[in-house]
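for the writeup, i need someone to sanity check this before i put it in the appendix. the sequnce is what the collaborator sent (i think, or maybe the updated version? ugh). structure was predicted straight from it, no edits. if anything looks off just tell me and ill rerun, i have time this weekend
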Amino acid sequence: MRSFDSLSRRGLLLGLGVGGVLASSSRQALADPVFAEYPFQLGIAAGDPAPDGFVIWTRLAPRPLEIGNGMPSQPVAVKWEIATDRGFSNVAQKGEAVARPEMAHAVHVEVVGLEPGRDYFYRFIAGTERTATGRAKTAPAAGSAVARAKFGVLGCQAWEQGFYTAHRKAAAEDLDFVYCYGDYIYEGRGSRTYTGSGGTMENPRQHFGGECYSLDDYRRRYAQYKMDTDLQASHAAAAWYVTWDDHEIANNWVGAFDDGVPPEVFLLRRQAAAQAFYEHMPLRRSAFPRGAEMQLYRQSSWGDLLDLNFLDTRSYRSDQPCDDAWASTCAGVSARDAEVLGQAQEAWLYRNLDQSRAHWKVLAQQIMVMDLDRKEGPDPGYNLDTWAGYSIPRQRLLDRLRERRIGNTIVLTGDEHQNYAGELYRDSHNPEGAPIASEFVTTSISSSGDGQDQRADGRRYLVDNPFLKFNNAQRGYVVCDVTPERWQTEFKVLDKVSDKTGVLTTRAKLAVASGDARVVPA
């Protein structure tokens, strides 16, 4: 077991000192802190599964929406257990970690030494209080033959704009793991209404407080989200790989840029947001913030079936061209010095793709790669917050896949609040030969409120963009069912999220055959 928060008994005693909730130096006092209210109100989570283990997470917060979260300003001991059965009759590992006030009393334990490719169960204990039980599956052994993987893709969960019925449904899917592409929280101030493509609607619930700027702001926002029991169930059901998009910090931020804010001031906001993100996500120590920076791009494998490249398309990107205008274009779209991934991340990705021997190479990221023409009429116009606004980096990526003959590449994307599926060409409006790769874009859990089967602009997109094979504007999530022979993506949607009675159905199943990047009905 490796734990950033674990420590020896002597270290714990030195860290606690005297006074407060753990005043005594006796072992019994250290093991039995007393809480005025239940301390695990934010649930539990597991993340970044590897063949020998995963991260487990919790945070002590008896009063989650208060500054200080109802905890003393000192470290507190937390026990953890890993078992092979839900009843914990066979405990495989156990240990003790410390919840530090500097980290809002969050705990991250990197568990190692487990068997590959099997289910484990975990829980935390502090004093006489205990968490619910979580499940996490270790990845198959590196390079081992894997006949099938089934995993979920989800994100964009504006708490105000809808209930988390999709999380409750995803928790029942029996998934190997979940990829969360970002927008875990939304940073904006509380609002009674939401205005979108469907007009102005009443929000079914409301954010606590104003817009997030400080560390305490972001901590309370995460606490409000994590108190949702459907989200807690989704975390407890499977280990997640998490990345961020924009709303974990500010809408459409990239690199050092946020509209109208001096870079040095925005850096302070980024730093607060990065710390809060780490404090609330099941991330490894490698992602620990260094000021405003976090190492969120990383790779994982699922035996010989999947090589998963988790990308960060925000932190290293140059500013959006054309003032980030919607459905537009300008000379800046073709800027030769533009970056989406940044030079280091791009080189890292290319090395991974060159070296991969997996059946499927996955780019798990945030913003659409398809160069979707979104402007009505003969002149093109793009969403400039996507790869389409950065034509040179986009062409480099697709040229690399084509020239190196890196087949079976699947791009998994979010951010759009709609479902899309399509084929990737270097220039999709002048396609040459077979498609280079395939892309599946997952809709939101709740962002944009009650959706509809298809908006008018979605119908137009299908007509104007022949490479686009599917579009839908309802809420939900995606389940990917993958074998060496075929990749199947199932789009699961809800008829509403404005109350908790939304009905889940499968809207479409689309597939990609091994060796053929065309997207076809399953």
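Confidence is low (pLDDT under 50) at residues 1-31. The chain has two domains: 9-137, 149-521.
thx in advance!!
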